[in-house]
User: Which sequence fits this backbone?
C-alpha cells in the first residue's frame, strides 16, 4: 500500500514579518516551489532536491517550519526523525509550509552578501550603508575616506591617491531607502591590505558578532576567529576574539538590564496568555532582583495525572549576573521527565528553596501526599517540613549520598575496599526488604565499623527502599529531569525573560509532540510500562499458586516462596509496592484467577492518564523582548542583582564520580597509602613521610554532614 504524500510549499529568498498585534510571523517575498513528501523521504534526499531547486549548496541550507496553530516559533529540521515528525504533524492537512534559509558555507573567499557590491543595492538607513561599507572595505583589503558624508548623501573613495575606486549613495526618491547610485569597483592601488587590518578593531568585531551572540550565547572565541577569517579574511588570535566577545556582551548589556525591568510585565503577560499559570517575582530592599518563579497551567494540570513524585534539583546559570535555576520535575506515565515548575534565584540558599516550595505548593493546589527526591545537602529538608508538613515524604538523592560516602572514605581505605563499600551501599538502598538491607549494611560493617556507623546515621529512612515511607517508584536520584537541565545550559546566558521564554517554547513543543505521539498508541498501558509488564509476565509462567485464605496466596517458583495479597496489592517480594505494577508473583495469582492484569496496575501508567497529562497546551507570550513602555508597571522597579560574573572563563569543578574510583598508590613495603616503595619513609629514612590517615567523618543523627 502506497504511503500518503503531503505537499511541501518550499519558500526561500523572502523575509519574516511579525504581526504587531499578536507577534505571529508571516513570510513575504522570495520564491516558492511545491515538492512531495512522505514518511519514506530521507532528509539528505529532500535537501538535495531543495539545493537543485533553489541553487543552494545542500550543506549550506537550513529547513524550518511552524507547528500547526503556532506561527511564533520556528522548528528546525536537522535529522530524519525531525522530517518524519513534520510529515506526521501535517498528514491530515495534506500540505505544509517549509522555509529554506541559506547559511554560509566555510570557504576561503569572504562573504560579501550583506555588503555594497553593485549599483541599485538598497539599505534601510545611512548608518546601515556605512556599516556595510566598513565590512566591504575590510573584506576586500583596502581603506577609504569620505568626500561627502551627511544626512542626504554619502560619497567615498579609495584612500590611495590615484586609485579610481569610489562609491556614491543617496536617498531613493519618494522613499526612506538609501540606494547606491554610482560605483566604480576597480582598484589599481597596492599595499592597502595592510592598512585594512587596522580598521578591524575589537569594537567593530564586537558589533559584527553581537547579533549572533544574542542568538547563540555559547559562541566560542575560536568560532568567532574562524568566522571572521572566513567572512572578512582577517586573522584573529584567541585573545582578540575573546575580547571582542566581551565587548559584544557589553553592547548587549542594555538588554540584560532591560529584561529585569520587564519582569512585572512579563509575569502579568504569562498569566494573561496562559490562564491558571503562576508567575511571581520578588526584589530586595534596593529593588534589585532576587527571585522569579513560573509554573504554566499546562504543567500544573499535567502533574495531576502523574505520580505524586517530584524531583528537586538546581543548576548554575552563567549569564552576566549569574544566579541559579531551581526546578521541580515529575515522571510521566511513560517514565519520561515532565517539567512542572522552575525559578531563577540570585543564589541557592535555604530561604530561596523555602520560597520556591511555597510558590510550588500554591501553584499545585493539591492535598495529595507528595514524595520529593532531592540532594540531602541543599537545605531542602527543613523547608519541606515547614511548607508541606506531614503531606510529603523526602527521599535523599542516592547519587549525592554515595559521593559523600566515597569522599569521606577516601584516604583511609584502599581502592578495592572503598569500591566494595560503595557497592554495598547501593545494594542496601535498592534492597526491597529490611533483612536484605541489614545484610548489606553488615557487609559494610565487616570492612569498617566507622563506615557502618556513617550509613546507619545518614538517616536511611530517607533513602533505603526497605524503610522509606514514601513512594519513589525506584527512582533514587534527583537529576531525573536531566534533559531539562541540558536545555537550560543551552540558553543560560540569555537575558532572563528571553531564557524563560525559550524554555517555555521547548516545554510547549514537548507537550505537543508527546500528545501527538500518544494518539497513535494502542496499548492500555504506556509503551515503557507495557514492556515492563510483559517482562514480569514471562517470569510468571512456571510459578505454582496455592490459596492460603481469603485473598492471600502462596506462590512457589524455583527456591523462592512468596505471599501475595491480591486485595491489598501486596507481595512479600515488595516489587508490586515499589513499582506500581504487578510483580511476577502477583501476575501468577491474577492469571490463575482469570482476572485482567491491567485492573491491578497503577492508573498513572495507563495510556489514558498519559494523554490527559498532555491535554493542555502552553500558549506563546507576545512581545517578550520589547513590551510597550505604557504597559510596564511604573510602580514596580526591578534592577539587575548586584552579583556579576567574574572576568574570564568560569571555573568548572568536576566532582569525582562514585562509579569510577581512582586507584591510590599503596606501598608494597609498609602497606601504607599515598606513596610507593621508593619514597617510603620506613625504607629510606628520608623522603616523603607517611601521610596521616584522616579519620572518617561520621554524620550526625539529625542531618548528614555538609547540610545547609
Assistant:
Amino acid at each position: 500500500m502506497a504511503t500518503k504524500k503531503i505537499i511541501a510549499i518550499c519558500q526561500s529568498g523572502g523575509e519574516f514579518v511579525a504581526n504587531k498585534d499578536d507577534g505571529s510571523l508571516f513570510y513575504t517575498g522570495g520564491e516558492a516551489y511545491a515538492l512531495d513528501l512522505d514518511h519514506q523521504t530521507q532528509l539528505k534526499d529532500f535537501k538535495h532536491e531543495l539545493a537543485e531547486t533553489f541553487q543552494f549548496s545542500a550543506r549550506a541550507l537550513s529547513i524550518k517550519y511552524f507547528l500547526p496553530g503556532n506561527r511564533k516559533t520556528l522548528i528546525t529540521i536537522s535529522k530524519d526523525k525531525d522530517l518524519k515528525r513534520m510529515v506526521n504533524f501535517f498528514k491530515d492537512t495534506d500540505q505544509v509550509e517549509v522555509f529554506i534559509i541559506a547559511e554560509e558555507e566555510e570557504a576561503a573567499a569572504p562573504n560579501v552578501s550583506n555588503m555594497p557590491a553593485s549599483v541599485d543595492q538598497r539599505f534601510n538607513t545611512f548608518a546601515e550603508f556605512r556599516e556595510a561599507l566598513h565590512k566591504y572595505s575590510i573584506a576586500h583589503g583596502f581603506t577609504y575616506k569620505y568626500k561627502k558624508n551627511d544626512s542626504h548623501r554619502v560619497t567615498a573613495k579609495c584612500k590611495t591617491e590615484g586609485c579610481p575606486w569610489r562609491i556614491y549613495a543617496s536617498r531613493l526618491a519618494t522613499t526612506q531607502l538609501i540606494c547606491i547610485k554610482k560605483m566604480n569597483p576597480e582598484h589599481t592601488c597596492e599595499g592597502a591590505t595592510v592598512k585594512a587590518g587596522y580598521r578591524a578593531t575589537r569594537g567593530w568585531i564586537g558589533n559584527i558578532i553581537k547579533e549572533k551572540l544574542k542568538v547563540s550565547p555559547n559562541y566560542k572565541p575560536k568560532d568567532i576567529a574562524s568566522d571572521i577569517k572566513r567572512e572578512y579574511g582577517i586573522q584573529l588570535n584567541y585573545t582578540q576574539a575573546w575580547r571582542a566577545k566581551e565587548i559584544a556582551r557589553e553592547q548587549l548589556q542594555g538588554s540584560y538590564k532591560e529584561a529585569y525591568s520587564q519582569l512585572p510585565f512579563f509575569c502579568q503577560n504569562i498569566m494573561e496568555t496562559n490562564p491558571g499559570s503562576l508567575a511571581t517575582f520578588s526584589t530586595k530592599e534596593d529593588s534589585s532582583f532576587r527571585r522569579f518563579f513560573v509554573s504554566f497551567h499546562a504543567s500544573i494540570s499535567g502533574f495531576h495525572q502523574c505520580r505524586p513524585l517530584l524531583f528537586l534539583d538546581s543548576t548554575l546559570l552563567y549569564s552576566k549576573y549569574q544566579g541559579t535555576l531551581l526546578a521541580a520535575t515529575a515522571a510521566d506515565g511513560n517514565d519520561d521527565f515532565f517539567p512542572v515548575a522552575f525559578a531563577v534565584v540570585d543564589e541557592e540558599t535555604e530561604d530561596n528553596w523555602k520560597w520556591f516550595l511555597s510558590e510550588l505548593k500554591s501553584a499545585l493546589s493539591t492535598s495529595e501526599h507528595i514524595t520529593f527526591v532531592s540532594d540531602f545537602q541543599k537545605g531542602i529538608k527543613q523547608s519541606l517540613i515547614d511548607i508541606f508538613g506531614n503531606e510529603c515524604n523526602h527521599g535523599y538523592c542516592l547519587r549525592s549520598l554515595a559521593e559523600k560516602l566515597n569522599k569521606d572514605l577516601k584516604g583511609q581505605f584502599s581502592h578495592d575496599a572503598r569500591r566494595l563499600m560503595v557497592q554495598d551501599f547501593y545494594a542496601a538502598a535498592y534492597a526491597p526488604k529490611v533483612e536484605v538491607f541489614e545484610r548489606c549494611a553488615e557487609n559494610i560493617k565487616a570492612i569498617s565499623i566507622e563506615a557502618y556507623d556513617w550509613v546507619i546515621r545518614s538517616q536511611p529512612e530517607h533513602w533505603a527502599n526497605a524503610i522509606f515511607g514514601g513512594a519513589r517508584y525506584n527512582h533514587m536520584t534527583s537529576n531525573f529531569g536531566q534533559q531539562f537541565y541540558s536545555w537550560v545550559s543551552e540558553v543560560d546566558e540569555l537575558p532572563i525573560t528571553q531564557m524563560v521564554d525559550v524554555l517555555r517554547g521547548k516545554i510547549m513543543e514537548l507537550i505537543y509532540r508527546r500528545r501527538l505521539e500518544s494518539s497513535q498508541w494502542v496499548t492500555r498501558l504506556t509503551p515503557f510500562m507495557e514492556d515492563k509488564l510483559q517482562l514480569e509476565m514471562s517470569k510468571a509462567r512456571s510459578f505454582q499458586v496455592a490459596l492460603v485464605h481469603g485473598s492471600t496466596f502462596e506462590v512457589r517458583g524455583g527456591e523462592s516462596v512468596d505471599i501475595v495479597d491480591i486485595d491489598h496489592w501486596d507481595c512479600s517480594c515488595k516489587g508490586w509496592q515499589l513499582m506500581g505494577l504487578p510483580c511476577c508473583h502477583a501476575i501468577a495469582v491474577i492469571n490463575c484467577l482469570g482476572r485482567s492484569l491491567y485492573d491491578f496496575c497503577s492508573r498513572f501508567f495507563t495510556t489514558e492518564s498519559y494523554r490527559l497529562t498532555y491535554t493542555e497546551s502552553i500558549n506563546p507570550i507576545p512581545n517578550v523582548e520589547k513590551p510597550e513602555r505604557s504597559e510596564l508597571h511604573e510602580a514596580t522597579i526591578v534592577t539587575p542583582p548586584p552579583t556579576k560574573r567574574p572576568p574570564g572563563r568560569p571555573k568548572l569543578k568536576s566532582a569525582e564520580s562514585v562509579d569510577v574510583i581512582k586507584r591510590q598508590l599503596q606501598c608494597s613495603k609498609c602497606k601504607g597509602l599515598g606513596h610507593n616503595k621508593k619514597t617510603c619513609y620506613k625504607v629510606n629514612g628520608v623522603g616523603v613521610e607517611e601521610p596521616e590517615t584522616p579519620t572518617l567523618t561520621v554524620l550526625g543523627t539529625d542531618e548528614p554532614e555538609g547540610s545547609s
User: Anything to note?
Assistant: Residues 165 and 184 are 5 Å apart (CA to CA). Residues 398-462 form one domain. The chain has a mean pLDDT of 82.
